[in-house]
Amino acid sequence: MGKKLPSWINCDIKRALSLPLVATITRCIHRKRTMSAMYWSHTSGNKERQLSPLALVNDGLRWHVRCFDHLDDKIKDFNLTRFESATEGSASTKKFEG
Prior knowledge:
By secondary structure, this protein is mainly β. The protein has one helix at 19-31, and strands spanning 33-41, 45-58, 63-69, 74-79, 83-91. It has one helix and five strands; from the N terminus they run H-E-E-E-E-E.
């Protein structure tokens, strides 16, 4: 069996994540597609959101998905463990400055 390489960030996720959910999010990032997602937040509760995921981000404590939120018309970070479901949508037509 291969030797495990040391990591420079802690990539352990304490909560169980659905593999199909993570696959959908990363596929949308790769294909530059929108997604319709059920996401729970402290302020809004469980709500459907139209997002364009751009990247996975680790802040040292938890993993986030950086997305363009089409309702609020701005880029936000979403905690990966708060997604309940995600469905791949159409090609994203929004151009992002970086």
